[in-house]
Amino acid sequence: MNTVLKELNRNDLPEIMNLFRETFTGPPWNEDWQDEQLENYLRDLTEVRTPVILGMYADDILTGVSIGNIRHWCGGTEYHIEELFIRRDMQNRGLGTQFLQMIEEYLKERNIRQIFLITDRNMPACEFYRTHGFTELPEHISFFREF
Questions:
Q1: CA 87, CA 10: separation in Å to the nearest integer?
Q2: DSSP characters for 78-110?
Q3: Which residues pair with 112 in a beta bridge?
Q4: 84 CB contacts (<8 Å, ≥6 apart)?
Q5: In the chain, is it the N or the C terminus that has fewer CB atoms within a 10 Å radius of its CB?
């Protein structure tokens, strides 16, 4: 399988939306994304000052997407990943690992040496990131309030 990494932009949103919906409406997420809500969500993530939107194409088919942005921090410049996903029918084939390696090479070429992300503890992605050398930050905690 021939895989390539491509920089994506807002013009690619329809293709990203289709893959996002296909990925997250099924197990284990089973999320309900309406068109307008999904488009607004992806615009929130991509219409920032320093977006980095990367796509992995396998045999010319969009197979993985990473949406994030660059943040400048006292410890260095970081890539904050907001969403990273692989097509459901292509998962568990090593493509996530390959995509992550491609992202890291892309970032190294730009002198970015850190990735920061948040994921749910009870989802398979949590173990995926641990397996690939990500460290859980015990001093961090997420808060949420509904009213």
A1: 20
A2: EEEEEEEEE-GGGTTSSHHHHHHHHHHHHHHHT
A3: none
A4: 64, 65, 66, 67, 68, 99, 100, 117, 125
A5: C
**Per-residue b or e along 87-100, where b marks 16 or more CB atoms closer than 10 Å to that residue's CB:** beebbeeebbebbb
| pLDDT digit string, tens, across residues 60-112 | 999 999 999 999 988 889 999 999 999 999 999 999 999 999 999 999 999 99
Tokens representing 25?
A: 């409406």
Domains and CATH numbers, the chain: 3-131 (3.40.630.30)
Specify whether the CB–CB gap between 119 and 129 falls below 8 A. Answer: yes
Kindly tell me if the per-residue pLDDT of 145 is higher than 90.
no
pTM of the shown model: 0.92
